[in-house]
Amino acid sequence: MQTPAYWQSRFPAALLLPLAALFGLLAAVRRAFYRLGWLKSERLAVAVVIVGNISAGGAGKTPTVRYLAERLRAAGFNPGIVSRGYGGRVDGVAEVPPQGDPAVYGDEPLLLAATTLCPVFVGRDRVAAGRALLAAHPATDVVLCDDGLQHYRLARDVEIVVIDGARGLQNGWLLPAGPLREPASRLAGVDAVVFNGDGAAALPPHPRSHRMALVPGAAWNLAEPAKTRPLADFGGRLAALAGIGHPARFFATLHAAGLRAVAEYPFPDHHAYRAEDLAAIEADAVLVTEKDAVKLAGLSLGGNIWAVPVAAELSPDLAGWLVQRLLDLKNSHGRQTA
Length: 338
Description:
Blueprint: H1 17-36, E1 47-52, H2 61-74, E2 79-83, E3 93-95, H3 102-105, H4 107-116, E4 120-123, H5 126-136, E5 142-146, E6 158-164, E7 192-196, E8 209-216, E9 219-221, E10 228-229, E11 238-242, H6 247-256, E12 262-266, H7 275-279, E13 285-289, H8 290-296, E14 305-308, E15 310-315, H9 318-333
Helix pairs in contact: 2-4, 2-9, 4-8
């Protein structure tokens, strides 16, 4: 989503503080009801790892889930992924096919299904999605939940919060006066915090903090996916488009890779592209994110569209810590984790 400019400051956002106070009260009451057991959390048969955030807007949750899924598979686990499927139109619960329609399943679940080799299920009810995943893929021994920090009906064993290091918590106020779904104090109760990119010095400290960098790889051509090209080989007139939570992050990644004078075209997060969106772009090559690529693949756009994959690198090692945490859970609670 495109975040309002007033979330960066205290005025005119202060005019919305009465609504933010009401939002905070309702959120606090709801959390208390779950904590007291008046609303019931439901547990899956395997460990559940939530990767979410406390603020609205893109922060880097999907790259984090992808990183964890790949690293858990390499460590001998069989992870599955559940997601709300934002932007899709699934009624109930569905498994996401790697070559599915992003308008049906959502762009982020489709990207995860295509790149992680893990089963991915979508549904507004994460408990139902998790149970359907385990029924269809009984070898699954850990469920990664892409978003869902506030979906308290799904009991969780590990909570990981991702924060955009560049934007931070902005003005630090609750919706709608600011970007926060929950107060910053909520961070004290999570297991780990991932800061995506630079600028973390101004963010709340956490005893288990990790810095994430998104490292670009060789671009691949949408018309011929087997055709790849290092970013250093791109020249001439270049354009870049991004329909993600924070398009400037993608453009900065290209600049850091040495690409200059790139015409930038930001679009809203989860934007449903049409051929007309690119008709006015005159360039020898158009560089897009992989999230955008899953939506552009169904359009006939010629051979000058290139998707730029990014790999998450975290310091210190988040996946190594998570593997040990899951093994500890298995030993202490007998949960199925490997």
